[in-house]
Write a structure and sequence with these properties.
Helix content: 40-55%
Structural class: alpha/beta
Strand order of the largest sheet: 3-2-1-4-5
Strand content: 5-15%
CATH topology of the largest domain: Nucleotidyltransferase, domain 5
Low-confidence stretches: 231-244
Distance between the termini: 34 Å
């Protein structure tokens, strides 16, 4: 049986608008040089044009070489509901685990590489391992900060996540008839869009209500705190949270 490796990364942790996207790319270890030859790199330092080109190349290789991709799009509502009782770090643990399970069935010999989303990289890896459960315990998990800069498999996962996140933002901009920018709080286009959207009585579902800049913009227009999301999902998630470090 050929040894296989999985790289996992996310896009959209910090933005106030749109989904948090996590991607897991599962390939045979012997195919790693293909990613190097393609010129795969950390999505954050690539131009939009190069990201999209590499994304198409990765999809083409997936079709022809039997690579598999796990993709999880976590919308703003789910983020807000989780953060009523949990943290963004613990949500990312769950999303990374979901993406891994979407990309592969549990098996011996997997090596899994994570771009850690916790100040303690080792803890992040251990928590992902716990969430995956016993069927994944024979796999080796490597969790490091800035893994997308060191590991071409994780870099490829970062490209997949980033392109899908950007596509989602473009669709939301068209749907709302307003340029949302990147969705990041520091983006002037995003700031302007939030000011306008927060003037409305019904806040668009794609806006993350737990973000401070959203709460400020809402209170500026309405002179009252923003209403919390219906807390429907937390009961199902809390037991997993309690088991983590």
């Amino acid at each position: 049986m050929l040894a296989r490796q999985i790289g996992v990364d996310e896009a959209g942790r910090g933005p106030a608008i749109g989904p948090l996207v996590v991607s897991a790319l599962n390939i045979p270890e012997k195919d790693r040089p293909i990613l190097r030859d393609l010129g795969v790199d950390d999505s954050k330092i690539l131009t939009k044009k190069n990201r999209e080109r590499l994304y198409k190349e990765i999809l083409s290789c997936s079709d022809s070489l039997g690579w598999t991709i796990g993709l999880v799009r976590c919308n703003a509502r789910r983020i807000d509901e989780w953060m009523e009782n949990g943290s963004l770090n613990s949500l990312e643990v769950l999303l990374f685990s979901e993406a891994i399970c979407d990309a592969a069935e549990p098996g011996d010999g997997f090596e899994i590489f994570l771009d850690a989303c916790d100040v303690n990289a080792g803890r992040f890896g251990r928590n992902v391992s716990k969430t995956l459960g016993n069927s994944w315990q024979r796999c080796n998990i490597y969790s490091e900060h800035k893994m997308d800069k060191k590991n071409e498999l994780v870099a490829a996962a970062s490209i997949i996540a980033k392109v899908n996140r950007d596509s989602a933002i473009e669709e939301l901009s068209q749907e709302l008839s307003i340029d949302l920018g990147s969705g990041y709080p520091s983006d002037p286009k995003t700031k302007d869009a939030l000011e306008i959207l927060c003037m409305q009585d019904d806040l668009a579902d794609c806006i993350r209500r737990k973000w401070t800049n959203v709460q400020r913009a809402w209170e500026k227009s309405h002179n009252r705190p923003i209403q919390a999301r219906a807390n429907e999902r937390n009961g199902a998630f809390q037991s997993a949270l309690d088991e983590w470090e």
